[in-house]
Design brief:
212 residues; alpha/beta; Metallo-beta-lactamase, Chain A; 7-stranded mixed sheet; 5-stranded mixed sheet; 12 strands
Length: 212
C-alpha cells in the first residue's frame, strides 16, 4: 500500500514498504517521469496503484545499491531507464553479492540491462557516491530537500559493512562526507532504505555513528 509522504504541485513522493526486510521503496512523481528509488518486492503492485491516481508516461529506476531487497521488482517494473553507479554493477550481477542466491532466484537477465550513470539524472537530482555498505552505494539528493540514503544511513544507525563488498573505512569516509552535508542542510529530510523518515538535524544529534 502506498503512503503519501509530501511534495508540491510539481513533485509528489510516496512510500511503499516491502514485505521483504521492511525495505522502503520511494515513488517520486516528477512529471512526466515516475522515478522509483529502490524497487523492492511489491513495487510492481504499488506502481499499479499509483497509476490509478497519476498519469505515468515513463518509469525510471534510481538504485541506491544492488541488494536483493532494493531491486527485487526491477524487471517487473519494465523500466525505461535504470540508474546505477558503475562500481555497483558487480554487486547486482553477482548473486552471492546481491544476495539473490539466498532466494534461489536466477538473475542472469540482469546482464542484459543497459545501466545509466546516475550523473545523467535530470537537474532536480544530485548523486553522492557513499561507498561502505557496498562499493557503489549512492545517496541521491532531490531538489536540496530530500536525501535518499539506501542502506548507508538510517535514522539511528548506519548500514552494515560485513556483507560481500562492504568496507568499514569507506563507510567512515562516507559518514564524514554526509556529516558535512547535514551540517550545511539541517532541515534536509532523510529517506532511508529501512525505517522511519528523519532529518539531517536529528541524525547529527541522535545517531551514534554521527556523534563525535
Ligand atoms: Zn543493502
Ligand atoms: Zn536493505
Amino acid at each position: 500500500m502506498l503512503k503519501f509522504i509530501g511534495g508540491d504541485d510539481d513533485l509528489k513522493i510516496y512510500l511503499h514498504v516491502s514485505d521483504l526486510f521492511g525495505e522502503n521503496s520511494w515513488f517520486v512523481v516528477l512529471k512526466p517521469f515516475l522515478f522509483v528509488v529502490d524497487p523492492g518486492r511489491g513495487s510492481k503492485a504499488a506502481m499499479e496503484e499509483l497509476k490509478e491516481i497519476v498519469n505515468v508516461e515513463s518509469v525510471e529506476l534510481v538504485l541506491t545499491h544492488g541488494h536483493v531487497d532494493h531491486v527485487y521488482d526491477l524487471i517487473a517494473l519494465q523500466p525505461d531507464k535504470v540508474y546505477l553507479h558503475q562500481s555497483e554493477k558487480q554487486v547486482l550481477l553477482e548473486p552471492s553479492y546481491s544476495l539473490f542466491d539466498q532466494f534461489g532466484i536466477n538473475t542472469a537477465c540482469f546482464a542484459q540491462i543497459h545501466f545509466s550513470d546516475p550523473s545523467e539524472l535530470g537537474k532536480a537530482w544530485k548523486v553522492i557516491h557513499t561507498p561502505g555498505h557496498t562499493p557503489g552505494s549512492c545517496s541521491y539528493l532531490l531538489r536540496d530537500d530530500y536525501l535518499f540514503t539506501g542502506d548507508t544511513v538510517f535514522a539511528d544507525s548506519i548500514g552494515r559493512t560485513d556483507l560481500p563488498g562492504g568496507d568499514w573505512q569507506a563507510m567512515a569516509s562516507s559518514v564524514a562526507r554526509l556529516t558535512k552535508l547535514f551540517r550545511e542542510k539541517p532541515d534536509l529530510l532523510i529517506l532511508p532504505g529501512h525505517g522511519p523518515i528523519t532529518t539531517a538535524k536529528y541524525i547529527l544529534q541522535e545517531n551514534p555513528f554521527f556523534i563525535r
